[in-house]
Inverse folding.
């Protein structure tokens, strides 16, 4: 008689266990997830957690100690280099494993394995861009060099030492949420990390050939040159104006038919959404010489602007071995200190913005993609079958053809961007074999300018402005990278792939790339602007910023007796240079007689604004809205024929309107009357007024309400509570403090190279990647307030210093 | 049946109830250290077989045992963590508060354990049929 109730309760039990063990959409399997012994509760780190430990690994060669300070920054003291890299890998994994693996899975186009079919097209794009191909080539170079081979092998072993000892309950909480497990780390994953960064900094967002080509359906090449000027009026270049460049030693030869075959009018391309660089966001770096500082020693500063995320892309550390002592920020995923300083020098990076990715139109013989037409003959492609595993679904296969240019990213089977199924191959510098890790290996150890120049030669892609300062008193900056030699306009538009005369013809010789050592003005700086004025003899297309560089150079020129505090002020500078340059023209053009009393009041606020993008100012909100609408009113009528067009840079609008009160594009071509600049300036102000007046009434016109920052978790809206929204600290695009929506200064660093190095730094995150740790986001408030931490360069005699909170000792056995 | 015997059997049942409860909690805790989370269902089932009670009582003993075990463990962790993570997870799962998340944690384990213990109890009542 009891069999029925037994059966019922057993079925209920098994049912419950099954339901609680299954993953439901984005929700985790609840039984496992909620278990206080294995699930997410295990990631809730006691706030008084003791991080000290005594660890043995057979891979180690000697002994090492890691001292953690009160910010959980490790100071690694190892008696040999290999162990230092092993420990760095171990620490990266211990504190940041999930992000390292997730980012490299994303680079390799393997996210579908983790989150299912909604990532398939993302994964296909990554693979068709050849990111793994690029990483494999990098591994060859990395493993061929004895220094980087040892470093990366030790690093990988360190990451895997952590992964191998990882228990179910110790898994980072994101693995538990998404219900998967980490795989072993590899040298390839380290290379993939570098290539993902390269895609961000020199991917097809820069000099997007598709979007420029689509402009040819509306404008001529000469018109496009005016809309996208090579050298903007307000450019304050990295290499001071007036610098005399040596005669070029290499040239690229223009193909005979380029006017008819290349710079011709096109039919409108169907361009769908493509990546574009975030306007006005980039990075700043500068170094001032001792002649301008109070201490007499150089100061180097850097704040790279990136998409801000949790866990942060940066992990701060000190690495000390008999051969080097480097401090700074590192990327979880690669060995070494990436932006930082050692006992002799300091170094910092900004993006060069130079276009090193071109698209060539390829004609296949047939749909098998096995042959393509090149220089009068059919050439064989190399076919790569991409296998995309999908969580909870069938595996997807994708056929990618590789030409002598590189992978064919777009063809009939993948047309999210291209026109009518045409095939386009990528020629991208990042695909070539190179060993960027070796640059950091040498930089971390460099003692002077000569060793710095030796080190940076290994950076081929992405092009970076590398600022330098040394204790010997030198300052310098090089725009480092392997940049193709180009004939004017080469690579701006899609190029014909059948004619080899359109291929790259070599690179700008290393000694001729833009650089400057100890300039007379006493400082070097870069902020993603074009490096040189138009006297530089090589043609370099790309995407560049204008106003941050203008402001930084203007400020540094006027400064004397500089102290680190002055540099902090400059990194947090909210001055709106674009408004400074353009406001007089706007106020001149606006027709006040057409404004209502309310609109007059709004204009009054704008004209009285102190030009600072501070949180409590209303001026920046008005200026931004006005510029956006003005830009739209000027360009949208001409650009409406193009899908997702690229719009001229704001600086172009500013320069053109200041120069030319009869600017032809001010006219709306869709109306019978001819609009003047005054008409369009007035009309755009009237258009924005109602919304702004309403905001003012609601007390929401302050810049702090308009320009708020969100730092998302890497899973974006999939883990919103792991992020932080509503951060207000002023700034904006084109502002030195380049804080915008989800972007901002990802690491602010100031290093004074006095006898005892005096350094400051902060990043909007925390040393732990665990959302359950008090070290997950504890730097954010300091960062928001524009404050810094004093960086402690520890030495061997300070092991008993009260700043040491925890210690992990590493040994062989 | 005399009164004393009745009293004694009641006491015995209470003793049994408490024994089952404590044993289930203890063994589930130990199993949880080495085995997947659902090992608690196996434990609850086995304890209900060993310490025989009527189905309702078996359910209740295991239910309370796991509610207290998971609930108290979660609560203890949460206090030491000052709610940093539970606040985030509660928001992520659309659960109102950290405290509610602790209750749900306890409840999930309690339900599984309860039903499993009930099965154990029914099985013991009809050993030949099972």
């Amino acid at each position: 008689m009891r069999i029925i109730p037994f059966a019922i309760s057993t079925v209920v039990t098994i049912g419950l266990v099954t339901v609680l063990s299954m993953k439901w959409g984005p929700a985790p399997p609840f039984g496992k997830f909620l278990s206080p012994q294995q699930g997410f509760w295990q990631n809730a780190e006691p706030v008084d957690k003791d991080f000290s430990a005594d660890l043995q690994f057979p891979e180690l060669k000697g002994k090492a100690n890691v001292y953690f300070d009160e910010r959980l920054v490790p100071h690694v003291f190892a008696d040999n280099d290999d162990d230092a890299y092993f420990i760095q890998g171990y620490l990266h994994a211990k504190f940041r494993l999930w992000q390292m693996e997730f980012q490299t899975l994303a680079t390799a186009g393997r996210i579908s394995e983790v989150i299912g079919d909604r990532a398939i097209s993302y994964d296909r794009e990554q693979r068709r861009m050849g990111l793994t191909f690029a990483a494999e080539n990098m591994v060859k170079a990395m493993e061929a060099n004895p220094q980087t081979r040892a470093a990366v092998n030790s690093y990988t072993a360190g990451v895997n030492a952590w992964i191998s000892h990882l228990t179910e309950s110790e898994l980072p909480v994101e693995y538990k949420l998404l219900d998967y497990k980490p795989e072993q780390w590899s040298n390839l994953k380290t290379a993939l990390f570098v290539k993902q960064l390269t895609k961000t900094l020199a991917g097809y967002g820069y000099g997007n050939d598709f979007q420029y080509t689509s402009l040819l359906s509306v404008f001529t090449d000469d018109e496009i040159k005016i809309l996208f000027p090579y050298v903007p009026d307000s450019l304050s270049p990295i290499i001071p104006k007036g610098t005399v460049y040596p005669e070029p030693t290499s040239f690229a030869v223009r193909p005979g038919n380029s006017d008819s075959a290349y710079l011709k009018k096109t039919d409108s391309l169907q361009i769908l959404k493509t990546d574009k660089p975030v306007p006005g966001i980039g990075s700043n770096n500068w170094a001032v010489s001792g002649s301008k500082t109070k201490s007499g020693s150089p100061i180097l500063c850097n704040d790279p602007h990136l998409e801000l995320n949790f866990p942060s892309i940066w992990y701060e550390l000190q690495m000390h071995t008999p051969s080097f002592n480097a401090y700074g920020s590192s990327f979880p995923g690669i060995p070494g200190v990436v932006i930082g300083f050692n006992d002799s020098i300091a170094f910092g990076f900004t993006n060069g913005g130079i276009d090193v990715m071109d698209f060539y139109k390829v004609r296949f013989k047939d749909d098998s993609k096995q042959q393509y037409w090149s220089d009068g003959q059919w050439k064989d492609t190399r076919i790569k079958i991409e296998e995309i595993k999908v969580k909870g679904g069938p595996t997807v296969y994708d056929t990618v053809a590789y030409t002598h240019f590189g992978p064919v990213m777009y063809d009939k089977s993948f047309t999210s961007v291209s026109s009518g199924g045409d095939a386009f191959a990528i020629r991208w510098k990042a695909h070539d074999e190179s060993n960027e890790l070796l640059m950091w290996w040498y930089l971390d150890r460099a003692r002077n300018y000569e060793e710095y120049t030796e080190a940076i030669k290994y950076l081929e892609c992405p092009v970076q402005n590398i600022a330098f300062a040394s204790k010997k008193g030198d300052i310098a900056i090089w725009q480092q990278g392997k940049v193709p030699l180009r004939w004017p306009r080469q690579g701006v538009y899609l190029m014909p792939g059948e004619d080899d005369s359109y291929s790259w013809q070599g690179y700008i010789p290393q000694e001729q790339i833009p650089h400057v050592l100890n300039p007379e003005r006493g400082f070097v700086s870069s902020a993603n602007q074009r490096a040189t004025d138009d006297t530089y003899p090589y043609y370099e297309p790309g995407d560049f910023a204008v106003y941050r560089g203008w402001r930084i150079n203007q400020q540094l020129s006027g400064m004397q007796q500089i102290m680190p505090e002055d540099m902090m002020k400059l990194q947090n500078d909210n001055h709106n240079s674009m408004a400074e340059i353009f406001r007089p023209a706007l106020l001149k053009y606006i027709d006040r007689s057409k404004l209502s009393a309310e609109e007059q009041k709004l204009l009054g606020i704008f004209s009285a604004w102190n030009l600072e993008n501070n949180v409590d100012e209303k001026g920046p909100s008005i200026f931004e809205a006005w510029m956006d609408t003005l830009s739209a009113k000027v360009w949208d009528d001409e650009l409406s024929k193009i899908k997702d067009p690229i719009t001229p840079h704001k600086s172009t609008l500013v320069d053109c309107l200041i120069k030319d009160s009869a600017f032809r594009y001010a006219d709306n071509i869709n109306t019978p009357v001819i609009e003047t600049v005054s008409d369009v300036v007035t009309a755009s102000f009237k258009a924005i007024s109602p919304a702004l007046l309403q905001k003012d009434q609601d007390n929401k016109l302050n810049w702090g309400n308009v320009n708020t920052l969100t730092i998302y978790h890497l899973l974006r809206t999939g883990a919103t509570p792991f992020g932080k929204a509503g951060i207000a600290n002023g700034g904006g695009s084109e502002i030195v403090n380049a804080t915008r929506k989800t972007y901002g200064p990802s690491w602010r660093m100031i290093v004074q190279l006095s006898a005892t190095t005096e350094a400051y730094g902060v990043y909007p995150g925390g040393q732990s990647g665990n959302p359950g740790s008090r070290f997950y986001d504890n730097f954010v408030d300091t960062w928001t307030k524009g404050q810094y931490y004093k960086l402690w360069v520890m030495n061997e005699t300070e092991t008993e210093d009260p700043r040491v909170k925890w210690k992990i000792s590493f040994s062989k056995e | 049946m005399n009164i004393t015997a009745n009293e004694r059997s009641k006491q015995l049942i209470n003793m049994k109830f408490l024994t089952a409860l404590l044993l289930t909690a203890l063994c589930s805790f130990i199993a949880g250290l080495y085995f997947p989370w659902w090992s608690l269902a196996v434990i609850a089932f086995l304890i209900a077989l060993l310490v025989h009670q009527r189905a309702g009582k078996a359910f209740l003993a295991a239910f309370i045992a796991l509610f207290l075990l998971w609930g108290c463990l979660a609560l203890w962790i949460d206090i030491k963590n000052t709610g940093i993570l539970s606040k985030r997870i509660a928001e992520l799962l659309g659960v109102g508060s950290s405290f509610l998340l602790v209750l749900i944690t306890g409840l999930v384990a309690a339900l599984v354990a309860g039903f499993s213990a009930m099965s154990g109890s029914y099985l013991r009542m009809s050993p030949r049929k099972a």
